[in-house]
Amino acid sequence: MRYSPRTVASVLDSLGGIATRAELQAQGLRHDAITMAFHYGRVLRVRRGLYARLDTAPDVLAALRLRGRLACVSALRYWGEEAPDEGVLHIAVAASASRLEAGSGVVVHWSRRPERGWRGCVDLEVARRQAASCRALSRAPG
Predict the structure, then answer these.
(1) Does residue 126 contact residue 75 with C-beta atoms inside 8 Å?
(2) Where would I find the H helices in the chain?
(3) Distances in Å between the alpha carbon of 57 and those of 51, 69, 136?
(4) In 3D, which of 29, 27, 57 has the Cα closest to residue 44?
(5) Are 42 and 94 in contact (CB under 8 A)?
(6) What number is the average pLDDT over the span 46-55?
(7) Which of 71, 60, 64 lies closest to 50, judged by CA?
(8) Buried b (16+ CB within 10 A) or exposed e, 4-41
(9) 3-state SS, residue 18
(10) What confidence tier does 72 reach under pLDDT thresholds 50, 70, 90?
(11) pLDDT in tens, 104-119
């Protein structure tokens, strides 16, 4: 069966909007169909082997590129909650994460256990808990 770039985008949608190449291939998509969908602008390549819908929020993409997901106040804003915007991206990563190159402008929330949520963002309850105890927020001026 031949797959068009549009079909790849549909399969990506069915997987929640973010998926690895392996997950897409497990749905029957061929390597070249996935590559073609990226080149035709039907899907975004977040980083090597990870793809997302075109309408994925920029902060979610930034977190995924750092091998994390939105956390704390960044997640609160994603979920539509009022939260301070200090111009910093808060991401959650596993305590065992390696090769993390966050740099300035990023606050990393390390977690020893998986937090609830989806691939791109922790859930609202987790984000509220993180914001209540965030050391970076307590040091922010104001």
Answers:
(1) yes
(2) 5-14, 21-26, 31-39, 58-65, 72-78, 124-133, 135-139
(3) 13, 12, 23
(4) 57
(5) no
(6) 96
(7) 64
(8) ebebbbebbeebebbbebebbeeeebeeebbebbeeee
(9) strand
(10) very high
(11) 789 988 888 888 888 9
C-alpha distances in angstroms, 133 versus 44, 51, 57, 123, 139?
34, 32, 25, 16, 11
Locate 16 and state its tokens. Answer: 């929640």
- Residue keyed to tokens 């602008």: 41
* Amino acid of residue 37: A
Q: Distance between CA 56 and CA 64 in Å, rounded?
A: 11
Query: Is 120:64 a contact under the CB 8 Å cutoff?
Result: yes
Contact 11, 24 (CB under 8 A): yes
Task: Please report where in the chains the tokens 């808060």 appear, as a residue.
Answer: 90
